[in-house]
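During the no-cost extension, the postdoctoral fellow (Dr. R.K.) reprocessed legacy sequence entries with the updated structure-token encoder. One reprocessed record is reproduced below for audit purposes.
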Amino acid sequence: MSIPGRKVRLRAVEEGDLPTLHAWANDEVLWANLGGWRFPSSLDSTRAWFAGLKADQRNHRWVIETRDEGRLIGAANLVDIDWKNRNAFHGMLLGPEAARGRGYGFDTVMAVMRYAFNELGLERLDGDIIEYNAASFALYVGKCGWKEEGRRRRWHYRQGRFWDKVLVGVTRDDYAALVKSNRYWDEGVG
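Re-encoded structure tokens follow.
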């Protein structure tokens, strides 16, 4: 089973994906725009992470492939799923620079929202963005209907200084309004 978008599909992480995921995990430029701590990691630690995915019902992690070529271009997730309150945290990365700015990120977020709201029955998704990551802010808040819900001042230390963590979120109703206005999933639109 996979989660289809219009340009991408999200599928389970497979063992054959690990060398690429390991390379992305050690890419300083890629991680400069993402939150959290990253330390150099071994392929063995990537394998251990992969082994732990099987029994984890609160965290869904996928790789992103292009629909036309089946090329691995990124990773996406829904983590810290709170089944009682029906919310989760969402994150995404596109690995190759050539995959950015081509609509794959937008399609991924749309597919994740459709899956989260229509299949899992979640009510909201949360995320966060480092304040200097203008591309992510434009994607989530500008195109995907997410709202800025607050800031944690001076949260991330990058490039020799502190940056705010911008808290963003989207509700089922926000998503429904977006799909109604952009008709994204309608055949022949876009």
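The chain has a mean pLDDT of 93. Residues 2-182 form a domain with the Aminopeptidase fold (CATH 3.40.630.30). The remaining legacy entries will be reprocessed before the final report is submitted.
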